[in-house]
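Good morning N.,

You mentioned wanting to compare the apo and holo forms, so I went ahead and generated the holo version with pyridoxal-5'-phosphate. This is what I fed in:
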Amino acid sequence: MESESIDSPDMSNAEFAKALERVSDWIVSYRTRVGGLPVLSRIQPGDIEKALPSSAPLEGEPVEAWLKDLEDIILPGVTHWNHPGFMAYFGITGSAPGILAELIGGAINTNGMLWKTCPALAELERVVLRWYATALGLPDWFGMITDTASTSTLVALAAAREATGLDVRQEGLSGKPPLALYCSEEAHSSVDKAGLVLGVGMQGIRRIPSSEAFRMHVDQLEAAIEKDRQDGKHPFAVVATVGTTSATAVDPVREIAAVCRRHGLWLHVDAAYAGSAAVAPEFRWTLDGCDQADSLVVNPHKWLFTPIDCSALFTSRPDIFRNAFSLVPEYLRTDVRGAVDLMDYSFQLGRRFRALKLWFVFRHFGTRGIAARIREHVRLAQELTSWIDAHPQLERLAPAPFSVVCFRVHPAGMEEEPDLERLNASVLQKVNATGEVFLSHTKLKGRYCLRVAIGNLQTNLERVRRAYRLVCEAAGIPATGI
Ligand SMILES: Cc1ncc(COP(=O)(O)O)c(C=O)c1O
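and this is what came out, ligand included:
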């Protein structure tokens, strides 16, 4: 067969260099102006689909044309997580060293399925996770990088299921006693999702009540485990949360670990957000008792300035993960002695070079620099907390140990439901419509509240003041104290 004429199989390097310059100019310009863009996208569902052709171009187009559409069509549809006013969910940062690593990772385009398919990936992943564990004060555990905490928790709980000895791997769940999994009522929904995937079922997921400070009641955990045992269930794992999604509460991990030991249960710690705080020595307490866990997840893409996605999963029991997941088809067999093939420890085969961005982040900031930035975010949150606490018409609804503050507008005499919820929902809507900041909401013990999460490296005191002023303006109350 005759080959079609192709001028150049890919962009030539000369063309690429020019395009790279344009892209790098674009990235720098974006970083410069992002703070002035509306943080929350204002487009309507379907706008982008309508603005773009319904099929791919027949002939290739020049980079200028794609970049123009990026600017005119895509950018308005971006909610800017890298914006100093992004204070919803968890504030995050795709920092400059992380962006550089993403560019290089794309250029290398390696796949760390096996040690052999990219030794540098396999080994850098081990090295940076060791750095991370050391910086957090964790033991020198086995670690692997996944995309998200949802995946990390799923993989960890699959290992926990393997550790039961029920041999689900071989025999499936049919005919086995129903599994029971425990977490607090404040745990993230990714725990339930892991339970769904692993055949625990919603009925097997026990959400243990939490205290006024949103920490799991350990006595109720133990009572639930004992009751399940009596009822013929098979308790197998507890997920403790260090930094709950709504209020950033820290479960009493040491006590939970003691319960797990007494009952032979796997302890997984979800420290997705708050775990990174432990890089700062004064926040080492955050991970107290976590050395007793079987596995722990912490996300550099939450509070370690690493572009999404990057989640670190640590375990003291890698052999169990191996037993759960190792399965080597002929075409992947290797004979490299002493090599660790990361595919043996999880369900995924292909593996991005995520370690590169975590490495660049550590190299650029250093652990001292990371600690200083975390400290600054906490300081900003404390400033906000002090204004809220001093304001007669604002009410804080949870302790604020890290960089998240949960509060509501509460005029004297206003009824709990539905008036307070309606008022605060309307304040949130007005504040977010300004485009200057983006806050989110949650419910704590059934009470609707506004939630300010600080975690972007460009967020400063001025922006936090602005957020506070916008809330007060929207509520029609004076912005006192700042
Ligand atoms: C405590 C906690 N765990 C897990 C997750 C899920 O994180 P991911 O998006 O990385 O799956 C979140 C998300 O915010 C979280 O707050």
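Residues 89-90, 148-150, 188, 190, 241, 243, 245, 270, 272-273, 299, 311 surround pyridoxal-5'-phosphate (CB under 6 Å).

Happy to go through it together on a call whenever suits you.

Best,
F.
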